[in-house]
Amino acid sequence: MTTNLKTRWRPGDRREPVASMIRVDQAGEYGATRIYAGQLAILGDRGPHAAEIAGMAQQEERHRAYFDRQIVERGVRPTLIQPFWNVAGFALGAVTAAIGPEAAMACTAAVETEIDKHYEDQLAELGDGDPDLSAHVREFQAEELEHKEAALAAGAEQAPGYPVMSALIRAGCRVAIAVSKRI
Question: pLDDT tens for residues 5-36?
């Protein structure tokens, strides 16, 4: 009996690094849209930094849409834990916004710090192997860095407990990346 290896996926498979990249990037961009949705739910559309957060959310939505298309076009299985990222992303955004506008910005700065590193690693791994994906990752990375710089300029480092909050959020991002690549 012959089986198709693409349909016999098991947790931990590493046969297709580009598929894993697309899966984790789609999950990450989806998570980012949920973080911003949580922040805006608390801050409102006229709260401190709300216009800036809404603009970042629009960019994240565009990034997510690209990876949604890539999942369909390339036949990539999305992460199985997307429902968890839906809730976790919204909760992270809402909790940080409830702490205050600077904490919401601290969340953005922490997340974007890890995403910058993540995208840089992907670009190195891709090399010249997938020019379209590389170009989009490079474009999105530049926008994520803009988000980080905007968050820092908006007072992220003034958030209560910034060093601890940033370290915890960054660690959570690293875990989310590792899990979404495989599951």
Answer: 344 444 444 447 888 899 989 999 999 999 99
* Whole-number Å distance between alpha carbons of 150 and 65: 23
Sign for the CA dihedral angle at 123, 127, 129, 135 comes to positive
Q: How far apart are CA 165 and CA 148, in angstroms?
A: 15
User: HSE on the CB side for 72, CA within 13 Å?
Assistant: 5
For residues 19 and 78, the answer to whether their CB atoms sit within 8 Å is no
User: Which residues have CB under 8 Å from 24's CB, separation 6+?
Assistant: 79, 118, 177, 180, 181
**78: buried, middle or exposed (CB in 10 Å: 19+, 13-18, 0-12)?**
middle
Q: How many Å is the Cα radius of gyration of the chain? A: 17
Query: pLDDT per residue over 133-160, tens digit each?
Result: 999 999 999 999 999 999 999 999 999 9
Q: Count CB-CB contacts under 10 A for residue 176.
A: 23
For residue 149, the tally of other CB atoms under 10 A from its CB is: 13
